[in-house]
Structure formats: structure tokens, C-alpha cells
Amino acid sequence: MRLRSLTLWNFRRFREVSIEFPDGVIGIIGPNGIGKSTLIEAIAWAVYGHPASRTKKEQIKRVNAKESEGCGVILEFYLGRDEYIIRREMVGQNLSPKVKLLVNGELLAEGERQVTSHLEEILGMDHQSFVISVFARQRELNALSSLGPEERKRLILRMLKIDTIKKALEALRSRKNANKKRMEGIKEAIIDENGFYRLDILKKDRKVCIERISEITKRYESRKKEMQEISASAKDLRSKFKKMEQKLELHNRLNQVFGERMSDLKNKRMTLGEIESSIRDLSRKKEALEGMLDDERSYYEVKAKKEFLEAELIKNREKNGEISKEELTLTKELDHLKARLHDMSLRKEATFLELKAIKEADSRILELKPIFDVIKDLEKILKLRDERAELEKKIESIKVDIQLDELESLERERKDLERNGIELSTRLKEVLRQITELEGVRGICPTCQRALTERERKSILDALSDDRDEIEREIRALTNRLAEINALDLEGVRSAHATLKTANSRVKQLLEAESDTLTLIGGDFGLKNINEIQKIRDEYQKLKGKVSARSNLNETFATLNRDIIASKRSIEETNRELEAVKIKKQRSTLEVKTLEAELSRINQLFKRLEKQFNEIIALKTEVKRLFELENTRSLIKKEIEELERDIAKIEDEIRSTGFNRDEYEALKIEKNATEDRLHQLEREVYSCDKELSIARYELKSMDDEIKEQNRLIELMDGLKEEVGNMARLEEIFKHFEAYMISSIRPFLSEYASTLFSNLTDGRYNGIEIGEAYDIMIHDSGMYYDLKRFSGGETDLANLCLRLAISNIVSGGDEGNGFEFLVLDEIFGSQDAERKRNIIRVLEELSRRFRQIFLITHVEEVKDYLGSFIRVVEVEEGVSGVEIG
């Protein structure tokens, strides 16, 4: 299998990429995490689908790709002389698979399962075997030497597919045991618990069953013949009985009609009698109604008078209600006027007392006037005194242990220490960098950049270590002194000095301002704090307010006098109106009571007349039915005459039917007896037929069981032969597995030794693969374990063993299998010379593997390659390729 081209769209980080693969050693270069391994994953995904992917299918599609866009891969490769094209993609919102496989331009298979199945058959391996055959990773190479003996052996045998022999052997043993269990089951099926063959017992039972079938058949034929004879006699009796039943049906139908007509005649006569009785009763009521017409006229007159009195009573009651509302309104207004008069009297008295208090306030204002005029200056003095007291307390609390000249000296020393610390840190970083470079694998002189001998390298390292220790001692001493100075809090000391100077200056200013103000106002009047000043201010303002309100109070007093006189006048007028309304209410109440008495009398009369009126209405309704009843009586008389004629006619028809009840009953008994015997014979025939069917079914079951027993006996003989063959084949597989395991190691040793010698320029003679597939390196005539050698030699040895394994698995040197190989980050700890050797050996291997892909992040490797594919980031989250 040789790769020709690969096309990706919206696959992982790639938006759209197409690559033509040349032959030879091809580098896939780029930073980590940018998508180098994705290109190889896409090849496996194209062939095997989702099982070859390292994530779920939803994570394969490129992030930020549009929902309408698809995701897929087109892979073209050669296998022998045929050209294959695989197009595998996922489309739609649900990422539905869509796969096609073309061979030499013609469609070979379509659909996810069909294409994958065809490719597995063509290539002869599943996706796991595919990856093992062509893909070698750095972590896998390291595992060859880091795993324990048993784990390493299992890994290599699995890679070489030798474990498939063990799996086949296990499957063979499982099948052999299964056949033995089947033989035990068959034995239980052909031999009963007494040790007799079931086949012999079945043959005896079959003979008995055949004899029973013969006896049942004879009995069946006898009963069937008798049943045919009885059936003819029963048929003749049924015909006679049917004619007799027809006469019976006609006779019964006529009797039924006769009974219905007689019942109708009886009902009609009863209805006629009831109607004639009702007509006589209604005639008497008609005569009584004519004498009650005067009471009906009186009812209508009293009803009209009652309705008039009710309307008048409602009207007078409403009028009385309006007068009551007017009375209530006037009463409330009178109460309001009296309350207002009382309130104004109280206010007048209070105003008089306030005017009296104002006269007393005038003398107190004269006493407070001198203090009030200078009260602002007094407040200023008190505030100055408070501020001065606070400052004096603050000055007493400030303690300064360091003088100003000593403070400036310490600050200069601190700045010098900080500057020296920066210089020492820079020197220390440089020394550490040089030590790190010298301790690396290259051993380059940090000054002249030339390669050093081990002695030179050690000498320089010792000198640099001494420099490092000296610088670290100086840094520690400097750090300790700097910590001592910082502990003195120099900024705090300088701030305390400044605060003390400012406070003393302010105290002096406060004393001068206080003295000037006292001179100006002529003393402090004995006031000690702001609260005393506030009391004087509040008292003075309050007294001034009272005095300024004197004119308003005089005016208020006069207004209240006028309002009191007006209120008394309004109360008198309201009292007069209220008396007039009360007289009007008495008259209205008297009219209402008069109407209520008259209405009560009329209601009693109306109730008596209403009862008589209802009787009149009922009589009128009944009398109306008199005419209808007379008409109905005439119709019923005609219907009675018609019924009497019908009844005479039906009696004649009943006599003419000729039906005889005794003959009918005798025929019925004979017919039933014949049919009972026929039914008995039918049941016996059915029972014989059923017995015969059961016996025949039992015979058939015995024949089937005999066939099954013969089949099981033959199967038992076949299984015995197959179990023997499997036992012999198991021994063959055991010997073949041992042969393969023993013969594969020499081949791996020879192939890996040649590669290892070439990669190390002949420094080492070769490699030996032990029984646990551990690697021994031949050095100076002796084989040594890998632990004796450096990381570079170990990685090379593992690489050689892995290339030997890939050569076997992919088809050997004949070139019939895979013609490409993928090596992922295999350079590891190799120096430049070893990297060149690896690439040189891989170029020689290209005769076997026409395409060898090197995945690496080491940029300089491209200088040793004939061609490379560089993976680059074209924008945020999107990768592309450059061919070189």
C-alpha cells in the first residue's frame, strides 16, 4: 500500500488542505499541538472510519465550521497495480456518514459498513493491526525498554500478531470442550435412566399404536353407517313438523289478534263511560259559574283600589324619608356650629395669655443683648481653645528616637544596598545560565562557543560554582542589612518630625488669634463651652420670636371676637329651621299611618275575593272541555262498532285453519326422539374421528422421535471423531506457537543489529534480543543491558527493534504489504550527528518502505530531508500546510 494523495476539509484544525505524497523520507514538521499527527489520523479514519479516531465523531468536525458545511477526507493509494480512492465524509446537522470506494475509477462499494468491510478484507487487517504495522510513536519506543519482561513480551507478540496463534488455540480448546458437553447432552437424550436405548422403546410403542388405530377405524365405520340411515328418517319428520308449525303459527297469530281486538273493545267501552260521567259533571259546573259573575267584577274593582293605595303609600314614605334626612342634616350642622364656638372660645383665652407673656419677655431681651452681639466671637474663641488642646495632646504623643541628620545617612545607605542587590542578582543569573549550558549535552563554552573536553568543562564548572557561592553570600549579607534598615521605618520617622514641626507652629498661631479676639470684645463673659452659648442663642431667638408675634396675636384676638358673635347668630337661625322641619315630619308621618290603615282593610277584602276569583278561573277552564268531550264521545261510539265487526270476522278465520293440538304434540315427540339418536351417533362418530387423529398424531410423533434418535446417534459418532481431530490439532498449534516464538527473535536480532550498527557508525557491533524480548547491546566483544548506556543509545536500540517489527508485520522485504511507515517524534535525546544517521538509515530503508513519514517538531531536521510537509497556523484555530 503506497499513498498517493490526501485531501481534507473541515477535519480537526484543517479548513481545506490537499497533499500529494512523494516517495522517500518525508518530514511532517511543525510546533506541538498544531495538527501534524492529524494528517496520519485522517489516513486511518479514511480507511476504517470512527474506530480509528481518538475522539467522538462530533469532535472531528472543525470548530467554527458552518452547520451547513460537511467534513471529510479523500485518500488515494496504490495496492499492487490497482489505484484506490476512498471518499469518507460526514454531512448534515447529525453528521451522517457518506462513504464511497472506487478501484481504477469504478465504484466498488458504497456505505459506511460496506466500504470498511471491503478495505479490511483487501488489506487483511483491522484498524488496530493497521496502526501497529505502520505507526511507531516515541512513547511506544520507550515502552519497549521500560516495561516489565512479561508486559514487554506480550506487547511485542501482539505487534507481531503471534498472539493470534494463542487466541486460535484458546478458541480451539473452547470448541473442543463445547463438543464434549454436547456429547454428554446427546447421551442423556438417547439413553434413559434405566440404561435402555430410547430408540428400542419407541419401536415397541409404535407397534401398539398401529393396532389401536385399526380398532378405532372399524368402530368409526359402523357408527357412520347407522348415522346415515337415521338421518334420512329425521329429514322426513322435519318436513311434516314444519308444515304443522306453519298451521300453529297462523292459529297463534289469529288468536293474538283476537285477544288484542277484545282488549281494545273493553278499553273503548270503559273510556266511553268515563267521558259520559265527565260531561254530566261539567254541565253542573257550567250552571254554577253563571251565578258567580258578580264576584268577578268586585275582584277587579278592589284590585285597582289596592294598587292605587300601595303607590300612594310608597310616595308618602319617600317624602317622609326626605324630611328625616333634612332634619338629620340640620342637627349635624347645629352640633358643628356649637363645637366651633367652643373651640374659638378656647383659642381666644390662649391668645390673651400669650399677649400677657410677651410683656415679660421684653425685660429678659435687654439682659441678653450685650452677650448676643458678640456671640460669634465667643464661639470662635472656644473653637480655638479646643483645637489648641488637641494639638498639645498630639505633640505630647509623638516620640522621635532618630534625629534628622542620622535619618538622612540611613536613607542613603538603603539606596546603595538596593542598587548593589540588583547588580548581584544580575551576576548570579548569568553564572547560573553558564552552569546550565555547561551541564547540558552539548558542552559548549559559554564564552568562546567552542566544544569543551570533559576536564575543561569540569574546571569551568567548579570556578563558576565558586563564583555562584560567593555572590549568594554577598546577597545574603546585603539582604540582612537591608532588612535591619527597613525595620527602623525611616519614612515613619521623617513623617513624625514633619508633623511635630507643623503642630508647634499651629499652636502659636492659635494663641495669637485668641488674644486678639479677647481684646476686641472685652472678655469672655465667663462662658466655658459651646453648649452655654447655644442655650443663650436659643433663648434670645425664642424671646425675639415671641415679641415679633405681638401684632399678629392682637389681630387674631380681634378676629376671634368677631367669629364668636357670628357663630352664635348662626346657631339661633339653625334652631329655628330645625323646629319647622320637625312639624313638617309629624304631618307626613300621620298621612302615612292613615294610608297604611286603609290599605290593610282593602288587603283583607282582596284576599277573600281573590280566592273566589281563582275558583271562577278554574271553572271556566273546565267548562271549555265540555264541547271537546261531546265530540270525543261520538268518535268512540263509532270505533266500538268497528271493533265488534272485526272480532266476528277473526273468529271465522280461526275455525277455518284446521289446526289439531294433539297431532302436533305427538309429531313433535317423534321428531325429537329421532334427532336425539342422530346427535348421539354424530358425537360417537366425532369421538372416533378425534381418537383416530390423536392416535395418528402419536404415530407421527413416534416416527419423528425415531428419526431424531437416529440423527442424534449419527451426530454422536461425528462429534467423537471431531473431538479426536481437535485434540491432534491442539498439539500442532502448541508446537507451531513455540516454533514461531523461538524463530522470530533471531530475525529481529539480525535486522535490528544491522540498523543499530549503521546508526552508530559501527561503534557498536549489534543487538541481541533476549527471551523476554529485552535488548542487549554488543560492545567491545560483550553484550550489556540497556541500563549501562546513555539515553541516546537506548532510544536508538528501541527504534531499531521497532523498525524490525514493522518490517515483519507489514509484509517483509518482498514488498507485498504496506510500503509506507510513520515515525512520530523518534529523535528524542539524539544529537545532530545521530539525527543525520537516523535519516541516512531511513533513506536506505526506503527501498523496503517507499514512503517513510517523520513527524517532528525539530525544525532543523528539514535540512537533512529531500522533502517535507510543514504544518502552520494560518489563523486562530485553523492550520494549513506548506510543501517543501
Q: What do the pLDDT scores average to?
A: 80
Distance between the termini: 24 Å
| Order of strands, widest sheet | 2-1-4-5-6-7
Largest pleated sheet = 6 strands, antiparallel
The number of E-state strands comes to 15
Can you tell me the residue ranges where pLDDT is under 50 for at least 5 consecutive residues? Answer: none
Q: Which structural category do the helix and sheet elements fall into? A: alpha/beta
Rg calc: 67 Å
The share of residues in extended strands comes to 5-15%
**Portion of residues within helices:** over 70%
Helix tally equals: 17
Given the C-alpha coordinates, what overall shape results? flat
Q: Could you explain the architecture of this structure?
A:
With 884 residues, the chain is an alpha/beta fold. It is 72% helix and 11% strand. It contains 17 helices and 15 strands. The strands form three sheets. Strands 2-1-4-5-6-7 form a six-stranded antiparallel beta sheet, covered by helices on one side. Helix 10 (404-439) packs antiparallel against helix 11 (454-487) and helix 15 crosses helix 16. The longest helix is centred in the last third of the chain and has 107 residues, at 550-656. The chain starts with a strand and ends with a strand. The model has no long low-confidence stretch (mean pLDDT 80).
